[in-house]
Design brief:
alpha/beta; Rossmann fold; 8-stranded mixed sheet; 17 helices; 8 strands
Amino acid sequence: MSNIPSFKSGTYQLHKNTNINYQLNRAIHLSRADIKLIRTIASQSPDIKCLVDVCYSEAVLQEQKGSIDNAIACYRLADFFLGVKDDRKLKAYHKALDLFNKKNYQFFENQMVEKGFIDYEQKKIPYYMVEPEGNIKDTLIIHGGYDSYMEEFFNTILYLRSKGYKVVLFDGPGQGYANRIEKIPFTHKWEKVVREIHNKLNINESTIIGVSLGAMLAPRAAAFENRIKRVVCVGLLPNFYDVLISTRSKRIQNILKFLFKYNCKNAINSLVSKMMKKDMLAEWGIRHGMEIFDSKTPFDFFDKAKNYNVEDIGMNVSQDILITAGDEDHFISIDFYKSMIDCFKNVKSMTFRIFNKHELAENHCQVGNFKLLLDVVDSWISERLLNN
């Protein structure tokens, strides 16, 4: 078993729906699924309902065949899109996790990768930790975002270990194990869990790396935790509420903003419910958000989403910061970035890196070429350490 993983590259056009297409690409690059299998699944899945049925059935078949990466990827896709009331959702999560643990048992058995838990508000936050064989260049703390599983970044931490880093990877509130098993909802006060990680693991200096919604949470943690010296934001969201409604027409956006201005809860719930009935993806996204944000109504979910923005904390970030973007990110328009960068007026240094299609990294969080992203992050950190 190689200790230095390989990475696939390329952005594939697999599905006419942009969001579904992205998640299928994510299965290929982060869960290491076979491209031919994912193409077949895409061709049989005109909508989410078909997709989850096909993915779950295919996961069972791939597991029986011993195709572990494919089985894990399909179980994760099914878990991702299944509704919270569907009995298969938790089964799919457990299946993917069990298969992942069996596949990677040697890393845990020989203690190359440490598995542990952090106490957090009378519950448990899981983490993986690796250390390089030689000197430690830096300690990295890595987390995902709105819908991540830390297992997706397992190869990331092995790769960064080979570059000389000590790496801590965790599922925070609202993510993966912390959400599925511990039932911990999302919090925008990310500094609380990051502080506990520093304390528990005796980390005196670190670089924090946040991905997608995690790219907003990382500088939030840095604003309140001075042991963080460098911040990497991969796919930074300006304001989560704005991103959520950006997929709607301008007319709907303006109506929602007007209704929120006057706190019209019932009208907002009614409008969003109608949207959910007409759009399966909207229904899935809002119900998923209500679950992980522990919200009873769409209004409560959107209202909590407003807490996730860089404007509130940007002035308090004083560390070196790297922000990466894809010039064809379907979630975050390049137009958003100027206002985000302007929020960080007191940082020690600011680096903004745009990836493009020629680099195969134009999509959200550079999923099409994750190795390139990691190499850029490594170079940036190395330069900061040299200059400090």
